[in-house]
Amino acid sequence: MTHLSVAGRRIELDKDGYLLALADWSEAVAEALAQQEQLILSAEHWQILHLLRAFYAEFQLSPANRPLIKYVALKLGPEKGNSLHLNLLFKGAPAKLAAKLAGLPKPTNCL
């Protein structure tokens, strides 16, 4: 799929399902992307997605798994900033899937 339809808007996606334009992101777009991944976003997901968007605003890049885990641990504590917790939330691919849902580019060092 190369686009999403959200609230009457056409949202363009790249071949991997990531937004082509960061400005197209909204919570409704995140919900639509999550639905494609058969994922229902909880408050814990939203906490990570908003944190990721703050990371991107600060550093202009999508973090790979290790930096993501470190950043979450720094901001939310070790009980949320660990690989087990993030893997459970994001189907074993937290850096890639969370970046996609947060409307960010695919992390450059993720396959």
From TrEMBL:
| EC number annotated for this UniProt entry | 2.8.1.-
Matching entries from Gene3D superfamilies are given as: 3.30.1420.10, DsrC-like protein, C-terminal domain
Establish whether keyword Cytoplasm is in the entry: yes
Q: Which GO terms describe its molecular function?
A: sulfur carrier activity; transferase activity
Specify whether Transferase is a keyword of the entry. yes
**Keywords recorded for this protein, A-Z:** Cytoplasm, Transferase
**GO terms classed as biological process:** tRNA wobble position uridine thiolation
Which residues are named in the active-site annotation? C110
Q: Where in the cell is it found?
A: Cytoplasm
Lineage top rank: taxon: Bacteria
Q: Which PANTHER family match?
A: SULFURTRANSFERASE TUSE (PTHR37010:SF1)
Function per UniProt: Part of a sulfur-relay system.
Per the record, the similarity remark reads: Belongs to the dsrC/tusE family.
Q: Can you name this protein?
A: Sulfurtransferase
> Which species is listed as the source?
Pseudomonas borbori
